[in-house]
Design goal:
Two copies of one chain form a homodimer. Chain A starts with a helix and ends with a strand. Chain A folds into three domains: about 45 residues, no CATH class; about 130 residues, Rossmann fold, CATH 3.40.50.2300; about 110 residues, Rossmann fold. Chain A is built from twelve helices and twelve strands. Chain A is elongated. Chain A is about 45% helix and about 20% strand. At the A-B interface, helix 4, helix 5, strand 2 and helix 6 of A face helix 4, helix 5, strand 2 and helix 6 of B. The structure holds a DNA duplex (16 and 16 nucleotides).
DNA sequence: TTGTATGCGTTATCAC
DNA sequence: GTGATAACGCATACAA
């Protein structure tokens, strides 16, 4: 049986309230008793029951990080920096994943309302973006911050990249590298991130006076460049259209090989900074500070030029 | 203010105990009252306070997964499968990371004793392998299972790969590919995984009648092959010794380029299976079933041959 | 500086 | 079938 405050109180011949105060370094307890209590606690191997403490204080000092999975840098990088920030404030960050499983996802959102954590960071994939539970949660004042994608219809604070600007810059660089026809694979209406990127492409194209075409357009033999959110989107599209992929503007990563002469521009998001900012916002929210709802944009880390030579 | 059992009891004009039973589908409650209670719970937006429930039942239905980080497949892959297994049993798995930070690590281990979870899976990196807290935890009967590395001096159940066999097989394949001098970078005494791999190399070398040398040995101009736990270990060694790395046997992954004519054998561990098995063991442990202490070996997923052509 | 009393929200053991 | 009642372990306003 675990050692409780009572056991300690008995061992020290004082009241449980005194023990409680002593262990929490309350200034009003005599140095001698405090020392005795602490010594006894160590001797008996006392460890507070946080379930009990949470029950009475109503706070758990715990933050959850909800994501679909752990593998993608989009998920684990913000989780990593957020964990550090949260820890600096004396709280713990716990990561929970749902693997895109609808039931699992609902269950996790339910857990948030069950007093196991004080707030949550949410990497909003498809499931979160539909769920009513999220709406109710927020309506009930539960501290919530979106990372990356978000729901524009809710005034939940959100952290994302400068997607529009980054997409526009991708266009400019690709055009400087010879592109004349821009294939826009960003899916407007898909989610807020895709929306922003698509808008960025259109804006840049307009400035440059170049045509933007969809995935199914007829293309010139050369000088087209495809823009997509990730390498596999671009590659998948090229495969379906039986095209040789040699020019692209993408986000986050490009691992695959490129044929000689080809060039890819890759905009790397600063997931670490996003996680840190999101954690800061959440901590403010949990502290009761006024946090403006709406989107925060974090500059991308940079744009890399990758060639096939 | 959150809705409590009492609010529900008042709204339904029954006792809290009846509400409690109704919500948990206790067979002794009248269908009519159950329906009414459930309807009212939905209407008022009731959500149980799990801190309170945990306090009285003594169980949290929660499992923690402790790791140094999330990025490495060694960490997130077992976490992923373990999460699924755990979820199937109606429990939740939460991932907590310490980033190699000593204080953070200690804090997490402390948390385990504070009734926030019923058991834990531990990816034992350097910190875990030293900590006394882990020993005490286990001594107090806290359900614990090691994944990958473990402490041989504790009878905590552990799941690892068939490291010795895999290392031996790496040697055999590399020798078949022309190796005659085997450079053993596996560090015996480092940890249980390195130990096993080092032993595997020595065993295979003995069978083949070939010499095993350490990282600082004088090498023939050619026909040596280096064995290491990961690509970066092998590359780091080659860099320090100003050697051109063209033959290696490693574990888990090889991403970098290889000069033409070179060949690397890579033993892929089955992290997913390891996570699943570890979860099963932990669940048994938590269910009070007798679980034999000691190491379980999961076969590696396979050995890939990578060439620089 | 310490003790007393009460309550946090829930489950469980009794009665009825 | 349902209702009192007593825990669970801890924190805290209030007394002393």
């Amino acid at each position: 049986m675990p050692v409780t405050l009572r056991d300690l109180a008995n061992a020290c011949a004082v009241d449980t309230s005194t023990v409680s105060r002593a262990l929490r370094d309350d200034s009003r307890v005599a140095p001698a008793t405090r020392a005795k209590v602490k010594a006894e606690a160590a001797r008996l191997g006392y460890h507070p029951n946080l379930a009990a403490r949470n029950l009475v204080t109503g706070r758990t000092h715990t933050v959850w990080f909800l994501a679909g999975g752990l593998e993608a840098p989009q998920n684990h990088q913000p989780a990593t920096t957020a964990a550090k920030r949260v820890r600096e404030c004396g709280l713990d960050l716990l990561v929970a994943v749902h693997h895109g499983d609808r039931a699992a996802h609902e269950r996790l959102l339910l857990r948030l309302r069950q007093h196991l954590c004080d707030g949550a960071l949410v990497i909003a994939d498809g499931l979160d973006l539909e769920s009513d539970l999220l709406v109710q949660l927020h309506a009930d004042g539960f501290p919530l911050v979106f990372v990356d994608r978000h729901r524009a219809d809710l005034d939940i604070p959100a952290v994302s990249s400068t997607n529009a600007e980054a997409a526009a810059e991708l266009v400019h660089r690709c055009v400087a590298a010879g592109a004349t026809t821009l294939v826009n694979l960003f899916n407007p209406g898909g989610n807020t991130v895709e929306d922003a990127r698509s808008a960025g492409v259109r804006l840049a194209a307009e400035q440059l006076g170049l045509p933007v075409v969809g995935p199914d357009a007829t293309l010139p033999a050369t000088d087209w460049t495809v823009f997509a959110s990730c390498e596999s989107d671009a590659r998948g599209w090229a495969r379906r259209r039986a095209l040789r992929l040699s020019r692209a503007g993408v986000f986050d990563a490009w691992h695959g090989d490129l044929p000689p002469g080809s060039v890819v521009h890759c905009a790397d998001q600063d997931f670490a900074a996003m996680g840190a900012l999101a954690a800061d916002l959440l901590l403010d929210l949990m502290a009761g500070k006024a946090v403006e709802p709406g989107l925060r944009l974090v500059p991308i880390a940079g744009i890399r030029r990758i060639t096939g030579d």
